[in-house]
Design goal:
Largest sheet: 2 strands, parallel
Oligomer: single chain
Strand content: under 5%
Order of helices and strands: HHEHHHEHHHH
Helix content: 55-70%
């Protein structure tokens, strides 16, 4: 089962973590200090709008494939397992997701600001798509992709598999949180700390409720606010970032 975990992570966020570590190493060894560098997310993939849209949609769709694989593997061994990815309690899940988003998002903004002042984070541009009609819908889809991929793999799949292997609860929480922090290292050390803390909170929530959907909704709200908000807000409002 350890091999299965490594393969699933190697196809998804484990691979992202490796690239993030290499990216951070490159930034730390560059002439510019980390705090003076910029990291852009959701960038254009082609100067031709229709081809750019095609690449964006394909990237989002194929990123979900490891999620489907992880769910398939879990259900093969646990036929009744749902991970709480259902609509049994939609209003409760939405309320929990919104509460988690507020709990994580407000301190997260403060952490981003402080990390920028300390120079331990690169300057983050959450959205760098061209000003076209499909930019906002694609950013929302990208937020959904991130939310589904991260919460199903890092929380639902990984924590369930580690419990199958009889790891102790503190170890399971630490591994899940450390992985979440590690694939954000391309942004800097502040991003690692912030996301690792978020990972601890989300892991504790999952252990208590056995539901991933509220985590997906919370993550979706956070990313939509970051991606779409950055695109729509006047640039002078963002000058402090």
């Amino acid at each position: 089962m350890h091999a299965e975990i490594l393969l699933v992570l190697g196809l998804s966020l484990g691979q992202s973590a490796v690239y993030a570590i290499v990216s951070l190493t490159a930034k730390l060894t560059a002439e510019q200090r980390l705090g003076d560098q910029t990291v852009a997310m959701n960038t254009s993939a082609s100067p031709r709008p229709w081809l750019d849209l095609t690449y964006q949609l394909l990237g989002i769709a194929f990123a979900i494939v490891p999620v489907l694989l992880a769910v398939h593997l879990l259900r093969r061994d646990h036929p009744t397992l749902s991970l709480g990815i259902d609509r049994r309690t939609p209003m409760q899940d939405l309320a929990r997701g919104a509460a988690l988003a507020a709990l994580i998002g407000l301190p997260g903004l403060a952490l981003v600001y402080v990390a920028g002042l300390l120079g331990i984070n690169a300057n983050l541009v959450p959205a760098a798509l061209p000003d076209l009609w499909w930019a906002v819908p694609v950013l929302i889809l990208a937020a959904a992709e991130n939310a589904i991929l991260e919460e199903v793999i890092v929380v639902g799949y990984l924590m369930t598999r580690l419990r199958d292997l009889a790891y102790r609860t503190p170890v399971i929480i630490a591994v899940s949180a450390a992985l979440r922090g590690s694939y954000h290292l391309y942004q800097g050390f502040g991003a690692f700390v912030g996301n690792a803390v978020m990972g601890v909170v989300f892991a504790l929530f999952f252990l208590r409720t056995k539901r991933v959907l509220p985590l997906i909704l919370a993550h979706l709200l956070l990313d939509v606010f970051a991606f779409v908000g950055y695109t729509l807000l006047p640039k002078e409002w963002l000058s402090w970032v």
